[in-house]
Amino acid sequence: MTNPISKIYKVRFKLRSPLHISSGNNGDGITKSAKVGIEPFIPASTIKGKIRSNFKSLLPDKCCNNEQSGTSWCECPVCSIFGKAGYQPSRIYIQNLKYNGEKDLDTFGIRSTVAIDRFRRVARDGSLAFTEVIDNGSFEGDLEVYYSGDSINYEKQLIAAIKMIESIGKGKSRGWGFVDVEVTILE
């Protein structure tokens, strides 16, 4: 087995619309955005799931993960980079994306929503809800990949899978969570 090739990418998500990644309700009736202290962030697991899904869609005939049991080693590009069940660890490590923008009153907002009864075509009783959103700014973080074997041959597809992300979080039908993605190779 050859030594893995390590590459680091800087990933930046610039908001095109309000963003909400839920962290639950704190009792005041407002669904809060994911934050560490007062700093909003995009969880790495959210980003990794989107990248894996996009990467897999770029290589439809390459993944044999569905055909093999969870205990056997898989050499397909998806499993060799993202890992799989059993003991085949992931070789891609993503930081939580940190907020990079002005923290003023125009950054955070509260949006109201009402659930609709689709059969009666009216608002459901007691369905008024409030959601905290981030209105503008960007999120940045590093993504490190340890390519092994032939997986380095799929670097362009991995970068394309990252750039394919168009939206993150909750509320896409309301026009929330749309982003522009930039990827820069650091090493």
For the terminal residues, how far apart are their CA atoms? Answer: 22 Å
The helix content, as a percent range, equals: 10-25%
User: Into which percentage range does the β-strand content fall?
Assistant: 35-45%
- Radius of gyration of CA atoms, rounded to a whole number: 19 Å
SSE pattern: EEEEEHHEEEEEHE
Low-confidence parts, pLDDT < 50 over ≥5 residues? none
Given helix and strand content, the structural type is alpha+beta
Helix count equals 3
Biggest sheet statistics: 7 strands, antiparallel
Tell me the number of strands: 11
- The average pLDDT is 83
Based on Cα principal axes, name the global outline.
Answer: elongated
Assembly annotation: single chain
3D structure, described in words:
The chain is an alpha+beta fold and 187 residues long. Helix content is 16%, strand content 39%. It is built from 3 helices and 11 strands; from the N terminus they run βββββααβββββαβ. Strands 1, 4, 5, 6, 7, 10 and 11 form a 7-stranded antiparallel β-sheet that branches. A 4-stranded mixed β-sheet has the order 2-3-9-8, with no helix packed on it. Strand 8 and strand 9 form a beta hairpin. Helix 1 packs across helix 3. The longest helix is centred in the N-terminal third of the chain and has 15 residues.
